[in-house]
Every structure is written in C-alpha cells, then in structure tokens.
Amino acid sequence: MDQGGASKTYQRRNPTLLLFYTLAYTRVEMYGKGYGMPSSHSQFVAYFSVSLSLFLLMRYVPSPSTTHSPATFTERLLLSCVACLCAAAVAVSRLYLNYHTPKQVMVGCAAGALSAVAWFLVTTYF
C-alpha cells in the first residue's frame, strides 16, 4: 500500500485532520485587490474588543444610581466575551471570503490586541 492511500484512509476517519489539511495546505484564489499585511479588519476588531474588555473588566467602576442599576461584573464579563466572539467572527470571515491568508489575519489580530493593551497601559499608568 502506498503512502497516498494510507493518508486518504486516515483522513476519512479523522474529519479534524481533513479540515486542518484543507485550511493549512490548500491554495485558494484570493479575491479582492490583493489586500495586504496585516488584515486591517482583523486588526480593528481585535483592538476594539480587547479595549472594550479591558475597560469593562479593569477600569469601569459602577456607581449606584436611583435611575438605573449599574452593570454587574458578570454582565460586563458576558459583554466582553460577546465582543471577543464578534471579533473572531470578523477574522474568520476574512479567511472564509478569501480576502486574506491566515497569516495576514493572525498578524492583524495580534497587532490590534497588542496595540489595545499598550494603549490601556499608557492611559492607565502615565
């Protein structure tokens, strides 16, 4: 039995491996005008979601009021998780629509998240 037959049999049994192989090693035709490095959509949504999460979880101090009840920590945590899930959805959509490569999207997300953390540290401590 040759190597090709063994790997095809294994891929049929393991759908996760097949998905990984398809995403990692398949060359797809890129649409758009050759959008570059990094993905600006991924960078923006990563920056926004990390900034919002840091603000809600670290800096926001609820004050009691007679007109409304302030958000609890659980509600703020839930909102932060929703923001991060939305950011992940935008990043995945850039891949799904073949506008960017996985590397471009990962670099965009990393740049946005690092920028948000840096800005949070600068505005908090300086």
UniProtKB/TrEMBL annotation:
Topological relation to the membrane, as annotated: Multi-pass membrane protein
Keywords, ordered alphabetically: Endoplasmic reticulum, Hydrolase, Membrane, Transmembrane, Transmembrane helix
Localization, UniProt: Endoplasmic reticulum membrane
Broadest EC class assigned to this enzyme: hydrolase
Record GO cellular component, one term: endoplasmic reticulum membrane
Sequence ranges assigned to domain Phosphatidic acid phosphatase type 2/haloperoxidase in this UniProt record: 3-120
Record's keyword annotation contains Transcription: no
Pfam family, one: PAP2
Family in the record: Belongs to the dolichyldiphosphatase family.
Function according to Swiss-Prot or TrEMBL: Required for efficient N-glycosylation. Necessary for maintaining optimal levels of dolichol-linked oligosaccharides. Hydrolyzes dolichyl pyrophosphate at a very high rate and dolichyl monophosphate at a much lower rate. Does not act on phosphatidate.
Protein name: Dolichyldiphosphatase 1
Species in which this protein is naturally found: Endocarpon pusillum
